[in-house]
Each structure stands twice: as C-alpha cells, then as structure tokens.
Design a protein that fits this description.
heterodimer; A: mainly beta; six-stranded mixed beta sheet; B: mainly beta; seven-stranded mixed beta sheet
C-alpha cells in the first residue's frame, strides 16, 4: 500500500521559473515530512523538512507548504536553476519510528 | 566525516550466486536502514536496525534476503540465492536515534544479477 503519493512523475521548467512538486499522505500518524534530493549515481540527501505544527517552511529558494487538513504537502523551488536538475522525493515518518516512507519521486529538469 | 560507506559500488553476479553488500554507518549513529531502489517500486525500506538490533524487517522481500549488524560500525545485506529480479540499487542509511533528524545515505551498491 502506497502511503505517500507524489506527482508529477517528471517536470521540465525553464531557468528562473518555479518548480512545484506535490505529495499526499494517508496515514494521519505521520508527523515528520522531509524532502530528499538525489543526483544520478548518488544517494538521496535531505533538502528540507517540516513538522505538521507549521504550515510553511522556507530555506533559501526552497519552500515546503503543508496542509494538514488535506493531508498534502508540496515543495516549491523558486528561481529554478539547471543545477537543481535532479530527482526529488517526498517522505514521511511517524512518532519515534525512524523509518521513512518515500513517494515515488519526481525527475526535475531545469532548462538553461 | 566520511559519511556512510557502502561496498562494493557495483556488483554483477550470476543468478543463483550469493551476494553480500556491506555498510559502515556514520560513527555515533544508532539507527541503520537498508533501502532498495528500482524504477518500478521506487525507494523501499527493507530493514531497520536500532542499536544493532533489527526493529522492523517487514520490508525484506523473502527468505533469500538476510541482514545483520554485528556491531555499531558494520552491517551486511545478503541475498542467497540471487535472482535477476533482485537487480536494483541498494542503499544503506544511518541516523542518530533522538529527535527528528535526517537519514544520511551512502552512495549505494548497484547490483546486477544476470
């Protein structure tokens, strides 16, 4: 059972544009929502994370928006750059459990 | 800090052979995870250790897969016998136990079973 659904599967954006990736979860026990970035041949690396007690978190050009009632969260990349081209995964975990449940990933391409 | 170290980076083996993947977590991290990544199924958690003890192995596909963590600085994932459908990238990750902290991933082992 897929507990975290991610869309779109792929995304192409012009340099300077806004990239938006969406995720929806089913398990209301989830209380930690990180986004990971993965470049080819590398392991995923934490980009930004949010707890459900806030609706938005911003770090530089990256922003997470969180809607607890809709059980949805999204990643916004402002002023997208070619160096942002990578695969992005949303994830979720619950309570003291350490395991992350990942979305299916979004391959982002930023055109120069 | 060298990060999470996995070996080998690439492994090609014949169907039926035993395969052992190795992982050295970041020093001081109490939690260790093995993930498998494929195009079809994405990133799947196989098993999770805390303080060297397996906590959740519900993601292990079948009895052909086994994982051990004999000490805080070493873990193995073994497949015996291997099958072509086991071909994937296997990641090891570690994290501190307390708080909502990130999981640090190794660079992965790309396994090809022919």
């Amino acid at each position: 059972q897929q507990q975290v659904k991610q869309s779109p599967q792929s995304l192409i954006v012009q340099k300077g544009g806004i990239s938006i990736i969406n995720c929806a979860y089913e398990n209301t026990a989830f209380d930690y929502f990180p986004w990971y970035q993965q470049f080819p041949g590398k392991g995923p690396a934490l980009l930004i994370a949010i707890r459900p007690d806030v609706s938005e978190k911003k770090e530089g050009r990256f922003t997470i928006s969180f809607n607890k009632s809709a059980k949805q969260f999204s990643l916004h990349i402002m002023d997208s750059q070619p160096g942002d081209s990578a695969t992005y995964f949303c994830a979720a975990s619950k309570g003291s459990a350490r395991q992350l449940t990942f979305g299916s990933g979004t391959q982002l391409t930023v055109l120069p | 800090d060298a990060g999470v170290i996995q070996s080998p980076r690439h492994e090609v083996t014949e169907m039926g052979q035993e395969v052992t993947l190795r992982c050295k977590p970041i020093s001081g991290h109490n939690s260790l995870f093995w993930y498998r990544q494929t195009m079809m199924r994405g990133l799947e958690l196989l098993i999770y250790f805390n303080n060297n003890v397996p906590i959740d192995d519900s993601g292990m596909p079948e009895d052909r897969f086994s994982a051990k963590m004999p000490n805080a600085s070493f873990s193995t994932l073994k497949i015996q016998p291997s099958e072509p459908r086991d071909s994937a990238v296997y990641f090891c990750a570690s994290s501190p136990t307390t708080g909502y902290t990130e999981a640090f991933f190794g660079q992965g082992t790309r396994l090809t079973v022919v």
